[in-house]
Each structure stands twice: as C-alpha cells, then as structure tokens.
Design a protein that fits this description.
The chain is α/β, with parallel strands linked by helices and 207 residues long. The chain is built from 8 helices and 8 strands, in the order E-H-E-H-E-H-E-H-E-H-E-H-E-H-E-H. The protein has an 8-stranded parallel beta barrel, surrounded by 6 helices.
Length: 207
C-alpha cells in the first residue's frame, strides 16, 4: 500500500540549523528557487520565531515553513503564532505531538524504535523521522517497514547525497538534510550547490 501524499512536493526537508533572521531571505530564497518546498528552522537557532515569520511572509505561498527540534507545547504554540505549518521533533513526546496536531500543524515526529514510532502515530503524527539515521542505517528502515502502516518516513541525521538512495530503497519517502546542506555563516551559493546535489541524488534514484 502506498503512503499518504506528502504536504510538500519535494520530499527533502531543508534544515537550516543556526541560521539568523538576516540570513533567512537569501538562503530560503535559494532553496525555494531550487525546488525545495519544506523548510525547517530549528528552535536552537538564533531568534528562531523571527526567522520563521520572515520565511513565512516571504515564501509561505511557495513552501511549507516550519521549525525543528520542537520539544515543548510552548514551542509548538510559538511556531503557530509565527505562521509556521510544519513541526519536526527529534524525539517522541506524545503530549507535544497531540497538542501540535490539534493546533493544525503537520508533524514529522522523531523516533528510534518501533515503540516510539507507534506512540508517535497514536498521538497523531502524520509523518515519522528516523533519527539519527546514520546510526541506524537503511537496515532498520527496511525492518520497520514490515510492521509500520504506510506512513511517510524520513531519514534524518547524517544523510548525504551518496547515502540518500539507500534510505529511499529501504522504504523512506525522503530525508531531512541538515549539516550536509547548511552550516551557519556559509555563503548562499554553497547552500544552493548543496541543495542541487541532494535534489539530483533524489531525482537520479526516482528515475
């Protein structure tokens, strides 16, 4: 059975950990131009709520903007107030997931075990995020797919353009890409170059 459709077209969530509000227009703009329509600004970035609002105001019609490393209901509320629509967590906290879903957010919930995955789904998460993927590898994805319902599954944490295909072949719909895409302070053209490499790796696999 196929997974439900994703709320964005390109199944690569761009993670801009450490970005500042002043850098948001250029870097998010470059990503949107390269076809990325799921952007995550982690809550441990400087003034993250402001960055989300800037991104939403400039690109919210072309991309799903959200926050990652969301650990509390207060952060989920701040994300909603900033206009974000996507919430990504590194862990499984059913109360936070349930609260976010009740407030209209699309949630990609982090998990590392089958128990956590099912707890996240029971709480209403629409997507799952295997984290850290590089520690667990495609073998765990393949094993989990034998028991999980057809929920969208993302590999996050250490995924590179060279390893992306292995996760997709094992049963992931896509990936969240962070440090291999963006590091704080890097030039916009480097972000664009990395984005193109990941997108091409995805397209090569899909071909």
């Amino acid at each position: 059975m196929d997974s439900p459709p994703l709320p964005f077209a390109l199944p690569l969530i761009a993670i801009l950990r450490g970005i500042t509000p002043a850098e948001v227009p250029a870097h998010v703009g470059a990503l949107v131009e390269e076809g990325y329509d799921a952007i995550e600004i982690p809550t441990n970035s400087p003034d993250w709520e402001h960055s989300v609002r800037i991104a939403v105001d400039a690109f919210g019609q072309r991309a799903m903007i959200g926050a990652g490393t969301v650990l509390t209901t207060a952060s989920a509320d701040a994300l909603v107030a900033a206009g974000g629509r996507l919430m990504v967590t590194p862990n499984t906290r059913p109360a936070v997931i349930r609260h976010a879903v009740e407030h209209g957010l699309q949630v990609a919930a982090g998990f590392a075990t089958a128990s956590e995955a099912f707890d996240a789904l029971d709480a209403g998460a629409q997507m799952l995020k295997l984290f850290p993927a590089s520690v667990h590898g495609p073998a765990l994805v393949r094993a989990l797919r034998s028991v999980l319902p057809p929920v969208p599954l993302f590999a996050v944490g250490g995924v590179t353009p060279d390893t992306l295909s292995g996760y997709l072949s094992a049963g992931c719909q896509g990936a969240g890409i962070g440090g291999e895409l963006y590091k704080p302070g890097q030039p916009v053209e480097r972000t664009r170059e990395h984005a193109r490499r990941f997108r091409q790796a995805y397209l090569d696999h899909a071909a």
